[in-house]
Design goal:
The protein is an alpha/beta fold and 372 residues long. The protein contains 8 helices and 31 strands. The strands form 7 sheets. A 7-stranded mixed beta sheet has the order 5-4-1-6-11-8-12. A 6-stranded parallel beta sheet has the order 14-17-20-23-26-29, with no helix packed on it. The chain has a 6-stranded parallel beta sheet with strand order 15-18-21-24-27-30. A hairpin with a 2-residue loop joins strand 2 and strand 3.
Length: 372
Amino acid sequence: MKALITAGGRGTRLRPITNTINKHLIPIAGKPMLFYALEHLSNVGIKDIGININIGERELQPVIGDGKKWGVKITYREQTGGALGVAHILRVWRDWIGDSSFIFYLGDNIVLGGVDKLIDKFKKDNVDALLALSIVKDPQRFGVPTIKNGVIIKVDEKPLRPASNFAVTGLYIYNKNIFKAVDKIKPSARGELEISDAHTSLIKQGYKVGYEEITGWWKDTGKPEDLLEGNQLILNNFSAQGGSRPMAGQFSINNEIQKDVKIDNGVIVQGKVRIGKGTKILGKSMIRGPVVIGENCVITDGYIAPFASIGNNVEIYGAEIENSIIMDGVDIHCRTRIVDSIIGSNVLITPKTETFPSGHKLIIGENSVIEL
């Protein structure tokens, strides 16, 4: 079995963050989003993985590499013709996939528990396609199946009146017959080849389309609040290895702290915590997990509260950070509380009292949210 991951698109709903970083490289709980898909696929023994990218993409390749990190072989291919729909991606990759069964994995999906149950269900039921479903509160944002007597009879893309509360998630398993469906569909009203139309076409041609409900959690990270929720879910389920550090300060028994981390006597570390090498936690700081802190950071008199994800080379002086994603190279030099925030790389945050004339100095990109 092969796997095909999507890593294209423009991430317009995540601007301005995605103005300077590929959406699939946004860190979730301390590592790029796309790494989770690669880990899940590697864990079930898949060795041959294709990654669909935008035309001219040059950011993903240096970060992901050739796949050796996960013991797989990665092939990159640009989506020729531009973003013409999810089903169009299958046409672009048809020759690479060949006659193999394959997992089609939308790379901006975060799922707990991996894909092994889906593969088992696909093989056990001997279906031509298996769709992973999840109950959601806003199914009109997704492909929605109509299920009758336990069988999917059609799938509608973003329906105004959903037939159910099930969403078709971004995880699919197909055999070669999916291409017979993709060949028959035409662009929708929005000019795209919809994957939901391909599923309905497959059903109409008499092929078996099964489904499996994701019983844990699944997240489509299309909006900023989705990124924060995905970050929460992963941090809440991560398991730090090892016991408390034999150094000064007060520690819980659930932390994973690299040996060369410096932690002052007055520092308190509680809960599930990961701290990367070269980081210094100084003064009267408190780290209360679940929290991930990257490498070569400096935190002085700061409070890093639950569900904070701190990148590499970050400096925090006197601030409180909670339920937020702080990317690499951020410098926060003010005694303030930051919550429910996503802060992009190399941002500088300083108190207004240290600049003249007095007031708030703002350099803000499109789609930003500011509270003053």
